[in-house]
Structure formats: structure tokens, C-alpha cells
Specification:
Elements: H1 3-8, H2 14-20, H3 26-36, E1 44-48, H4 54-61, E2 65-70, H5 73-82, E3 88-90, E4 103-109, H6 117-127, E5 128-141, H7 146-159, H8 171-178, E6 184-197, H9 198-206, H10 209-212, H11 216-233, E7 238-251
Parallel strand pairs: 1-2, 1-4, 2-3, 4-5
Antiparallel strand pairs: 5-7, 6-7
Length: about 250
Amino acid sequence: MTALSRAHSFNTAAAQYAVNRPSYPPALLDAVEELAGRPLAGARVADVGAGTGIATVLLRERGADVLAVEPGAGMAAQFREALPDVPIVRGDGNALPLADASCDLITYAQSWHWTDTGRSVPEALRVLRPGGALAVWWNRHAADVPWIVAQEDRIARHCGVRPPAGACPDDRRAARLAGLAELRTARRLLRWSRTVPLDMHLANISSHSAFLVLGEAATRAFLAEERARLRELFPGETVEETYDVDLLVAARPQ
């Protein structure tokens, strides 16, 4: 299964993704403003790989003028339904459909790891204005919560993917940004949690690409076993999910 196939697998589960995926804590947007060196209010922002608009909503609430960029038809349709007054264009980070020096900020929420940094980094530099910034972030499952670590290991073994290493989903791509002399880079890790019904927790799990490409029968079998395990841990059938948001901001000089 290619990375492209996994990336486009989300289009078949866009509604599930929109309802069950976690958002981000207010502290994340505070950190973006701090590290970018400017407020979001009034900023021209391109939210790339916008998906169903989870990050777009938060950026708009801070007063940003947001344009969404999304490659997937299913995700874009879900975005338009949820945010009909926000412009969205089809495209991806490797070839941004945006004019030179047109954005104060480019954001990638859970989507930078789908890009080819040999193409996406020059594209970001082309589109950013002087003094602009690129912000990439990921929600990571907390690597110091025992039940979460055990669940991640079961998922990795069931889906045949590499077990999590407690690091950014793709540190090599993050390092590609950090190594650029023309950018001022900073990284921040932010702990947060949410409490959700067991059904939502399981639906969140199965909205990830590893399950979307696995097939319905294999996914259903895993979720049935996982439900039984989690009912023992959480008899009230509410689950506290703990995350670390891994944020990297790369700012251009004026």
C-alpha cells in the first residue's frame, strides 16, 4: 500500500473523520502566534491538507483570513458542508495553487508527513511573504500513559505497521525544516486530553489510514476485541484520551 493510497483513504471516511477526530487545545494557537511572532487576527493563512476543517475552525476563531487547500474530493465535500463560507481549493503541499508571497502563515495540521519535502518546502517558501511562517503540527498519543502505549502496540501489530516510537510521525521531514539556514525554527510540545464516549474513541481509531486500508472485516474484528478490553479499564464507557501536540514553526526573516 503506497503513501498516496493511504493519504486518499480518508476520502471514504470523511464524515467519520469529522465527527470523531480530536481537535487541538487553545494553547496550540497561542504557541503558533508566539513562535510566528505575530497574531493570527488579520493574518492571511493557507491551511494545507485542511481535511474536514478541524484546524480551519480554530484559525478562523482567532480572526485569521483562511483559505483551505485540500487534495481529497471526499474531505473537501465534508469541509464545504461544515464551512460553506470558507474558500477551499483543490491541491496539495507539493504544488500549492497559490500566488507567490501571498500568505502570512501556512499551516499543516496532521498533514505535513504526506508531503515530499523536496517539493513542499520550496513551495512554502515561494508562497510565504517576508516575515511569514510555516507551522506544522501533529496530535501524538501520549507515550507515557500505559494503556495508550499498549493499545498503540496492538494497533501496530494488527495493522502491520511500524510500532510508534514516541516521536513525531515523521521527524525526518520536521528536521528538513529545522535544518534550513534561512528559517528561524522552534519546536513546542503541548500536553492535553479529552474525555469521550467509548464508541467515539473506537470510531476515532478506525478513522486512521492504517485501518481504512485494512478492510472492514479486519477492522471490525479488532474493534470488537478492543471494546472488550477497554470496558474493563473504563467500566463507565468514557475514555480519557491524552495527547501531546508536537508543533514546529519555521519563520522567514523580514
